[in-house]
Amino acid sequence: MNKREFLEQLQQYLSDLPQQDVEQSLQYYAEMIDDRIEDGMTEYEAVEQIGLPEDAADRIRVELPLPTLMRAKARSARRPKAWEVVLLVLGSPVWLPILLSLVIIILSLYIVVWSLLLSLYVVDFALAASCIAGLGLSVWTIVEHDLMHGLFLLGASLVCGGFAILLFLLSKVLAKAVCRGTVAAVRKCKKRIAGKGNVS
Question: What is the pLDDT at residue 74?
């Protein structure tokens, strides 16, 4: 497949999207093919390395903002039949509360996860502050009062500092995992909404 054929097929797969997004995507892939040709590939090799137009269309759809994707899906969807509308309206006292409950539960769980992470960071800050205050107090105790009490305070401060470092590293790993999970969940949701590209 050459560049022109690839771009024509890609345009067909993206036909339900806003014209501006289609043009940006076509320009992006045209430049990508041109760059590979400049690097020494033939036109056919460059297109082959990018992959199939329908796969490129799926990648483009996943990168689109969710509202744009939903508007495009609504425009390309078939009009519901009268009996489908009646069933939806009559069934709304059942499916609407269930749907709302699911959304609220998912949102609540997400807020709880971030609240727990925030709590870990607060505890970490408290441990770090205890370490710094304890170090100052231990020096003062050693100089002004008792060596043994001062050394005990120094040891306790260092333990707090060690826990603060470990807790910070753990919190950072967990926060990254939650962010990656969020991105993956949004991508999966967008893939479900996008479905396969439409060829007109």
Answer: 65
How far, in whole angstroms, is CA 189 from its chain's centroid?
11
pLDDT in tens, 27-47: 999 899 888 889 888 888 888
Is residue 59 within a helix (H) or strand (E), and if so which, with residue range?
Answer: helix 53-63
Tell me whether residue 180 is exposed, middle or buried, using C-beta atoms within 10 angstroms of its C-beta: 0 to 12, 13 to 18, 19 or more.
Answer: exposed
| Ramachandran angles phi, psi of 30, nearest 5° | -65, -45
Q: Are 178 and 115 in contact (CB under 8 A)?
A: no
Spatial separation of the C-alpha atoms in residues 50 and 33, rounded to whole Å: 8
Q: How far is CA 50 from CA 2, 7, 34, 133, 195, in A?
A: 12, 12, 12, 58, 20
Choose among 154, 166, 156: nearest CA to 124. 166
Is the pTM higher than 0.85? The answer reads: no
Are 157 and 186 contacting, i.e. CB atoms less than 8 angstroms apart? no
